[in-house]
Design goal:
5 strands; 19% helix; alpha+beta
């Protein structure tokens, strides 16, 4: 089963930040600030039990955050 992911990515030519579903091309929602985009994306990720992947301005991954879809959960968590 493929894991569900949501990404916070730079908004491209429009600037700002977009939330996209993993594998999707269209933006779910656009924000002017990264902070607002991450906050909203975290709520979506929690509701859908997906992995949240936040990217830097250059497109590289800044930090992933699992909300139930982690294929390799930490061994100390049950």
């Amino acid at each position: 089963m493929a894991r569900k992911t949501h990404h916070v990515v730079p908004g491209g030519e429009s600037g700002g930040w977009d939330i996209k579903k993993g594998g999707g091309q269209k933006s779910i929602k656009h924000f002017d600030t990264k902070q607002d985009a991450v906050k909203h994306a975290r709520e979506i990720s929690k509701n859908q039990k997906s992995e949240l992947i936040v990217h830097k301005k250059d497109g590289t991954i800044q930090n992933p955050d699992s909300h139930g879809g982690d294929p390799c959960p930490p061994k100390d968590k049950k």
